[in-house]
Amino acid sequence: MAALPTLYLQGFAFWSSRLPGWDVARAVIRGERAAPEAPAPRPAPTLLAPTERRRAPDTVAIALEVAARACEAAKCEPRELPSVFASTHGDLAISDYMCTTLASTPKLISPIKFHNSVHNAAAGYWTIGTGCTSPYTAISAHQYTFGTGLLETAAQALAEDRPVLYVAFDIEAKGPLATVAPSRGLMGLAMVIGPQSTPGSRGLRLGMCTDAPTNPTSDAYALVQDNALAPCFAFVEALARDEHTSLALALGEHSALRVELV
Questions:
Q1: CATH code for position 154
Q2: Quick one: which of 25, 116, 129, 207 is 20 to 30 A from 109 by CA?
Q3: Domain count of the chain?
Q4: Residue 50: its pLDDT value, please?
Q5: Distance (Å, whole) CA 62 – CA 88
Q6: What does DSSP assign to residue 205?
């Protein structure tokens, strides 16, 4: 596959339990400050009405936080953007609850938790909170989720010739599922990618390769490496350092997405 035309990263946001917000994460990666000593509480999904906010799970809270901040950074109206939501495991905490309840007292399963168990729950809450009627896509590709979601976002931005919001997130695994699908803490990032340059945007050139995935190099990686979304962190580091560089994001056992930051 030949390299795609240059796209532009128009807005970016990041949040994790130990690096709560892009300003904090960027400074820690650069070695300009120490990381907070204690994990931060999850962000509140203020886009939602109080009733929806109270019952929103961690997946929704983290996804809506980074999505809103990325749209702010890009100066885009959220309701106008198509979107791609990507998560390695979805909501493993709710999945653990449902499996436990179905095995013990199946008639007591919570309709609200069942409603929040689907993989596109965060995307659905986003459309409710923003009034967005543009299409969305929900993706999972196990350990290859971040690169796969980025490729899907780029393809949509080029095909539709318009900016697309990309949101990737994962939360902590619970119960027996944590032994087969491990993940700790909360982490999410979001970006608005479009075919046109905007003030302050970064150029992205994507293409296929067979290179080994690029490994993170900063000390900050230790703060996020146990989260299922950790494969995104080499990309996050390159943005934080404002590097003009090329890196590889795994798409499969023998394929990768080459990302050039220009």
A1: 3.40.47.10
A2: 129
A3: 1
A4: 86
A5: 14
A6: E
